[in-house]
């Protein structure tokens, strides 16, 4: 261990003020953060700082001068990291500053191009947008809903599903993304919403279509039937003489329109015969002469 | 990895008033999150540096302002230089 007086370059008779001044002069020159490119600066600075630890403290200096402690007592525990170790790393940090070379980026040579590329989105960078996915049922996509999603860091986010949302639509929650750097401000949370298909309903713009099975007698004679809609079942009149493919309209039972109002629900009828053979039906059709001459595969 | 305000005070040994002053002066720029300030390791190292500039080297407030500003520019240039070297190595210019 070197003599601390020699390290600081002061005589052993130096005053406290002289010691401080000597230390400051050396620290300005040797502090690793003031010499980010000098790998040896850390060792030299450690020596100087250790010497000053000893001589800058009147009590320790007295004990050193009396021979009670030696210079090794002045050795500092190895310090982990200086600011330069973080600021010089490639990782993003909020103190990054490109103003020292910003003018170089204005020209259009290859260096400017490389600089621009390396600098892009560094200092005062806005936070990242965070992407999430959310699945909702068909009814919720029409009527709207609120869903709470749990974030990877354990936080939660309340997502308001607007009425009439279409599958694949993205909801943007401003400022709910990752925090930004410097004055960049946070990013947004982008929630892609998938509407789980409902086998009963199909959506066509603001309108909803549904296929509704009806019995032969409901089709031929007409009647009132219950029809499911996205907002609950309603009663609908099936007119006399309906057929498979007959489409009826339930006004305003579709999805909300962007500009106000609602689309419609179209109900496409499908005539369904009983599953089991019915002797009565067979007997009736056997005696139904006109029915035998009707060929649905022929025009007219 | 990120520290709360309390953890940062403990880790850096700063007094609350000093921390508030340094944040106000933008010497320290912690992340602002809905659940409060978040500090990183770079903030601890930067706080230690500011302390050394102040008591060790004897820089005053204006001096520290200038030093930090120039130092961050220097690091910016070093990063740009490193990036250039990397890009040029890639392009094999």
UniProtKB/TrEMBL annotation, chain A:
GO MF terms, alphabetically ordered: unfolded protein binding
Lineage: Bacteria, Pseudomonadati, Pseudomonadota, Alphaproteobacteria, Hyphomicrobiales
A GO BP entry: protein refolding
Full protein name: DnaJ-like protein
Superkingdom of the organism of origin: Bacteria
A single Gene Ontology CC term: cytoplasm
UniProt-listed Gene3D superfamilies: DnaJ domain, Urease metallochaperone UreE, N-terminal domain
Domain J: 3-68
Alphabetized SMART domains for the sequence: DnaJ
InterPro entries: DnaJ_C (IPR002939), DnaJ_domain (IPR001623), DnaJ_domain_CS (IPR018253), HSP40/DnaJ_pept-bd (IPR008971), J_dom_sf (IPR036869)
From TrEMBL, chain B:
UniProt xrefs under Pfam families: MerR_2 (PF13591)
InterPro entries: DNA-bd_dom_put_sf
Domain of life: Bacteria
The name this protein goes by in its record: Chaperone modulatory protein CbpM
């Amino acid at each position: 261990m070197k003599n601390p007086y020699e390290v600081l370059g002061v005589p052993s008779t130096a005053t406290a003020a002289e010691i401080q001044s000597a230390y400051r002069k050396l620290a300005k020159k040797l502090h690793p953060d003031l010499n980010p490119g000098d790998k040896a600066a850390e060792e030299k600075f450690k020596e100087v700082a250790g010497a000053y630890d000893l001589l800058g403290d009147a009590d320790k200096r007295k004990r050193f001068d009396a021979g009670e402690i030696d210079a090794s007592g002045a050795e500092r525990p190895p310090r982990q990291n200086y600011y330069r170790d973080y600021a010089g790393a490639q990782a993003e940090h909020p103190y990054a500053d490109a103003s020292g070379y910003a003018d170089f980026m204005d020209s259009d040579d290859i260096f400017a191009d490389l600089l621009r590329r390396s600098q892009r989105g560094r200092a005062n960078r806005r936070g990242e947008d965070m992407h999430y996915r959310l699945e909702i049922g068909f009814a919720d996509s029409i009527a709207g809903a609120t869903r709470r999603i749990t974030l990877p860091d354990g936080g939660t986010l309340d997502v308001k599903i607007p009425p009439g949302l279409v599958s694949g639509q993205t909801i943007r929650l401003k400022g709910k993304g990752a925090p930004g750097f410097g004055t960049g401000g946070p990013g947004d949370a982008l929630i892609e919403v998938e509407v789980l298909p409902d086998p009963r309903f199909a959506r066509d713009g603001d309108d909803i279509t549904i296929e509704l099975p009806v019995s032969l007698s409901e089709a031929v004679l007409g009647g009132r039937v219950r029809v499911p809609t996205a907002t609950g079942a309603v009663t609908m009149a099936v007119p006399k003489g309906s057929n498979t493919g007959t489409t009826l309209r339930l006004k305003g039972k579709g999805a909300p329109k962007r500009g106000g109002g609602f689309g419609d629900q179209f109900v496409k009828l499908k005539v369904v015969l009983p599953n089991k053979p019915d002797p009565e039906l067979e007997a009736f059709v056997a005696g139904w002469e006109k029915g035998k001459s009707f060929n649905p595969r022929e025009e007219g | 990895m990120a520290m709360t305000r309390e953890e940062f005070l403990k880790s850096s040994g700063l007094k609350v008033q000093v921390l508030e002053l340094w944040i106000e002066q933008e010497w320290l720029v912690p992340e602002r999150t809905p659940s409060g300030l978040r500090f990183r390791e770079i903030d601890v190292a930067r706080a230690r540096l500011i302390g050394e500039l102040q008591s060790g080297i004897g820089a005053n407030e204006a001096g520290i302002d200038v030093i930090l500003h120039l130092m961050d520019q220097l690091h910016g240039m070093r990063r740009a230089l490193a990036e250039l070297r990397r890009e040029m190595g890639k392009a094999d210019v």
